[in-house]
Amino acid sequence: MTERLPVAVLGASGRMGQRVVQQILDSDDLALACAVCRADSNSLGADAGLLAGRAKAGVPLTTVDAGFGDARVVVDFSLPGGTLAALPYLGRRALVTGTTGLDAAQLAALHTQADAGPLLHAANFSTGVNVLLALVRAASRALSDFDVEVVEAHHTRKVDAPSGTALALARAAAEARGWDLEAVRRDGRVGHTGARPAREIGLHALRAGGITGHHEVWLGGPSEQIQLVHTAASRDVFAEGALRATRWIAGRPPGLYGMSDVLGL
User: Fold this and answer.
1) Does the pLDDT value for residue 83 go beyond 90?
2) What is the number of other CB atoms lying within 10 angstroms of the CB of residue 189?
3) What pLDDT digit, counting tens, does each position of 200-236 carry?
4) DSSP character for 88?
5) 218: buried, middle or exposed (CB in 10 Å: 19+, 13-18, 0-12)?
6) What end-to-end distance do the CA atoms of the chain give, in Å?
7) Which residues contact 13 (CB under 8 A, 6 or more apart)?
8) Is the pTM of the predicted complex or chain greater than 0.85?
């Protein structure tokens, strides 16, 4: 029998963390090594399998200072504070993280982990979204005179806007044209805005109900328009992508990786 890859889940009490736990327990090649939650979580001490709606796993939820046991890969769906708090305990383990909302200093601190072990940081683990990123780069480069606008929609409980995926899409379009996104981004419009400048990328965020994730990239020319759209029907796509990355990164050398590496894009 092939030895199972031991995996730790950081943010295991959250909705995405629970889905990752479910898929690990349902797999035939992964093992749940430990499950970590915040110290103030009501789920602290609960069995990770039962919490995720599966059979008892014998893995209680612990805090990060208990370490990651024999896990070779840590899958992280926590918030920025949780991600940064985990860094001192990672050692040379691989980290697969989907944390968004990091400021520049937090992002720099996270990326230092790539010196110790393999780090894969993705704004979105959906394989479809990552193919969309490649399409946006190609379209923005080929249609260099077209206006670019990014629209995203998520559930009402999402705490950051625009989404990390929307920013990644806008950055892909900007970099394809040799632009600095921060110099050309415009978040929403209101009032008498004047004519839209050519060297601009618009970002627009919608929050409603239970929307899992919807992203649109509009490319508009004077006589034609293109829309590139991705809609996630279930959060399971993010867990599936994260565990695809987990399998891929195990045994890789230290360094910073992305989903484009996993998918060979």
Assistant:
1) yes
2) 11
3) 999 999 999 999 999 999 999 999 999 999 999 888 9
4) G
5) middle
6) 32
7) 37, 38, 41, 42, 43, 44, 46, 51, 61
8) no
Cβ neighbours, 10 Å, residue 180: 10
How deeply is 220 buried, as exposed, middle or buried, from its count of CB atoms within 10 A (0-12, 13-18, 19+)?
middle
Give the CA angle between residues 221, 172, 145 to the nearest 5°. Answer: 20
**CA neighbours closer than 13 Å in the CB half-sphere of residue 7:** 34
Q: Tokens 């996630």 map to which residue? A: 232
Does residue 36 sit in helix, strand or coil? strand
Q: Categorize the per-residue pLDDT at 42 as very low, low, confident or very high, splitting at 50, 70 and 90.
A: very high
43: pLDDT strictly greater than 70: yes
In sequence order, what are the residues at sequence separation of 6 or more whose Cβ sits closer than 8 angstroms to the Cβ of residue 191?
none
**158 is annotated as an active-site residue:** yes
Catalytic residue among 111, 155, 158, 215: 158
Quote the pLDDT of residue 65.
94
Determine which one of 121, 154, 204, 230 is catalytic: 154
CA angle at residue 71 from 93 to 28, to 5 degrees? 125
Tokens of 142: 């080929």
For residue 154, indicate whether it is catalytic.
yes
Going along the chain from its start, the domains and CATH numbers come out as 5-125+235-263 (3.40.50.720), 127-231 (3.30.360.10)
Structure tokens at 143: 């249609």
The answer on pLDDT for 1 being more than 70 is no
Cβ contact 51:61 at 8 Å: yes
Q: Do 213 and 165 form a contact (C-beta atoms < 8 A)?
A: yes
Tokens of 28: 């035939």
User: In the beta sheet, which residues pair with residue 218?
Assistant: 149, 227
What pLDDT shows up at residue 164? Answer: 87
DSSP β-bridge partners for residue 244: none
